[in-house]
Design goal:
The protein is mostly helical. Helices cover 69% and strands 8% of the residues. The longest helix is centred in the middle third of the chain and has 29 residues.
Length: 124
């Protein structure tokens, strides 16, 4: 079932979201300082490509100083806006019963987009 839902996700705009994240990631990786942020954006792009059947887990290093500092920088440098955009898309999609599964995937992306450092995506 998740394969069918991922195909629908891609056809209904998921591919555009994933491509936007990849382009943003490549732009961030131009500088050495931007590489960690670019890697997190790549993580978002992989989840945006096929979100059904995947979950986000917190790593043991998530409570460390570096993850916390990087997440704060991420939020201040635009992570809040990425997260809010996924939240809005999720709310709009949840207006209809058919859109609820897709809205839930945007909520998953919103959570990862808010604090991506110290988290990884795994298959269910």
């Amino acid at each position: 079932m998740s394969i069918l839902m991922n195909i629908l996700w891609l056809l209904l705009g998921g591919i555009f979201t994933a491509v936007e994240y990849v382009v943003a990631s490549l732009g961030m990786m131009i500088t050495i300082i931007g590489i960690p942020f670019g890697l997190q954006t790549l993580k978002l792009s992989l989840l945006a490509l096929c979100p059904f059947g995947k979950e986000i887990q917190t790593t043991p290093q998530a409570g460390g100083c570096l993850s916390i500092i990087m997440n704060i920088l991420w939020i201040l440098l635009g992570g809040i806006w990425i997260s809010l955009s996924h939240l809005v898309f999720g709310l709009v999609l949840c207006i209809t019963i058919i859109g609820i599964p897709f809205g839930k995937q945007h909520f998953k992306l919103a959570g990862l987009a808010l604090t991506p450092f110290g988290k990884h995506v795994v298959e269910k």
